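Exercise 7.
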Amino acid sequence: MSERVICASDELLDGGKGVRFEVLQHGRTEPAFVVRFRGQPRAYLNRCAHVPVEIDWQPGEFFDYSGLYLVCATHGALYAPESGHCVGGRCNGKGLRAVPVVERDGRVFLIEEGESSVGQQ
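Solution. The predicted structure, written as tokens, is:
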């Protein structure tokens, strides 16, 4: 297991803009993102559970207007930021796929388990 820096901690404001990055999953590069919610960084693959499209409505913009939910710009599906679970919309109870991260020493790290990240978008 190894770690790779995604961003500085101060780049993530609670309920604010996220940071896009890429991960290697099953031999393919996949888009991912990290946001801060209730003080904790949360990371997910950038893929709607309904149809595999990226969910941000502008690069790095994942939260709805209230800052309480992650929202798919294409379908309007709402996801709980702390878990990625679908809370409304066309995701039919499916959720976002979590990406393991840890925060320490003023930085947010991707935890790589046998596959490496490819870098920030």
